[in-house]
Design brief:
Layout lengths: L2 E2 L28 H21 L15 E2 L29 H10 L27 E7 L2 E6 L2 E5 L33 E4 L9 H10 L3 E5 L3 H5 L5 E5 L4 E3 L5 E5 L19 E6 L2 E5 L8 H9 L2 E7 L23 H11 L4 E4 L13 H12 L7 E2 L7 E2 L2 H4 L15
Parallel strand pairs: 5-6, 6-7, 7-8, 12-13, 13-14, 14-15
Antiparallel strand pairs: 1-2, 3-4, 3-16, 4-5, 9-10, 10-11, 11-12
């Protein structure tokens, strides 16, 4: 159980940390040894710049005053994943496991990640309906973790990112490989933006600013992110702890639910803000968006509280180790799910349908371009599940859940609007 007191408001600025990404125009690539010194120099300059240009004397994302968060996953300074233990030491003869700071240096100084192919994007999806009636549910993947959820007369966006890079700077960092599935100008009126945590591929300030200029006035997010989103121009920001909920209309609520992940936007603010997923509940049913998460017991608890879940939006990458000589799935198991774990989460949730997220848009790990989708198909086959139970539609293709689908007891017979596009 947890309780929450509204924290004192505080203003802060974060300065972009350049250099934590490679400078390739096609995403993270191995850096030539001759360029490593330049990259390290840029990184050091960025750190110095951050220290010089900070204006408030407080840690990024932190109030200088004492926090008033009272919850069982906050120790007074940092948020944490309950029940998640420190990984055991490496076996004798193996190189000690490196922390995530080591991962950043590998990304800067070189890696053996596979090169993704050049992609030829097709036409964006058709312009969505302005609204859908009560009882209707359409989910349109935009790409990565961004979904347009239309239900019961409301339009909701999850972790929106239309930027070319998920990065603190526009000129470096992981580059988008696939265009957004919907044109930004084709978006219908958005009633709320759900922001699951503060990583750059989920809390994208340039996109939030564009949405604010477009007239979006409301966001629902996790503890600690209110000021950052408010300063982007969105006037009403609901900041929630796990299991807290807000009302979108007389019949639709949004509940923040647990996830197993972490937060940070700079080297200094790790786990200073909370992470989570969302359940949207209304006459059309329960929609679960997981945000970023590793596999854990929280899926079963969410199912117990919100069953039946009509559709679950679950990430399937990154999952491969960053070095080819590391054991499979050693680097990410606590904070991301492999496709097989996503399938197990689908079963734990008892979801009628699951839709894949977090693949083939930004290269954030050592997965090959098609690895996640191939592994997903294999995992479904190994569990003897209908391949239509967990789908990965291309960006821009809306998935409309119909009464016929609901009568199939999870063996998906759904209609995909625009399937012949």
């Amino acid at each position: 159980m947890s309780s929450y007191k509204s924290p004192r408001r505080c203003a802060f600025r974060t300065f972009p940390v350049a250099g934590v990404f490679t400078l390739s125009s096609h995403g993270p690539e191995r850096i030539n040894p001759s360029n490593k010194k330049i990259v390290v120099l840029l990184f050091c300059l960025a750190l110095i710049s951050f220290l010089v240009f900070r204006t408030d004397g407080a840690d990024p994302g932190m109030c200088a005053e004492e926090k008033e968060w009272i919850t069982d996953h906050f120790d007074g300074d940092l948020f944490f994943n309950p029940g998640l233990h420190t990984p055991p030491p490496s076996p004798p003869g193996e190189e000690p496991q490196r922390g995530r700071s080591g991962w950043i240096w590998r990304l800067i100084l070189g890696n053996d990640w596979p090169k993704w192919p050049q992609t030829t994007d097709g036409a964006p999806g058709e312009t969505p309906a302005v609204r859908v009636p009560k009882g209707s549910l359409i989910v349109t993947p935009v790409g990565h973790a961004t979904f347009l959820i239309q239900l019961d007369g409301l339009n909701i966006l999850t972790d929106p990112i239309w930027s070319d890079r998920c990065s603190p700077v526009s000129w470096a960092g992981p580059k988008r490989y696939r265009d957004p599935g919907l044109r930004f100008e084709d978006l219908p009126p958005i009633d709320a933006v759900l922001v699951s945590h503060n990583h750059y591929d989920h809390l994208d300030l340039p996109t939030l600013k564009r949405l604010a200029r477009k007239g979006v006035q409301r966001s629902i997010t996790t503890l600690g992110n209110r000021d950052l989103i408010h300063n982007a121009g969105i006037s009403a920001v609901d900041e929630l702890d796990w299991w807290q909920q807000v009302r979108m209309s007389e019949e639709v609520t949004v509940t923040l639910v647990p996830a197993q992940h972490f937060s940070s936007r700079t080297p200094w603010d790790r786990n200073k803000t909370l992470w989570g997923g969302f359940v949207i509940s209304g006459p059309s049913g329960n929609v679960f968006y997981s945000g970023d998460t590793g596999y854990g017991p929280h899926f079963r608890e969410i199912s117990q509280r919100f069953s039946p879940i009509r559709v679950a939006l679950l990430p399937i990458s990154p999952f491969r180790p960053p070095q080819s000589n590391e054991p499979p799935h050693r680097h990410y198991p606590e904070i991301h799910m492999a496709p097989a774990e996503a399938v197990q989460a689908h079963l734990d949730l008892r979801a009628r349908l699951s839709v894949a997220a977090h693949f083939q848009v930004f290269q954030l790990g050592a997965d090959g371009f098609d690895d996640a989708l191939n592994e997903l198909r294999s995992a479904l086959a190994e569990r003897d599940l209908n391949p239509d139970a967990f789908i990965a539609p291309p960006p821009g293709q809306p998935v409309e859940l119909t009464a016929r689908f609901d009568n199939m007891d999870g063996l998906v017979s759904l209609q995909m609007a625009g399937a012949n596009r």
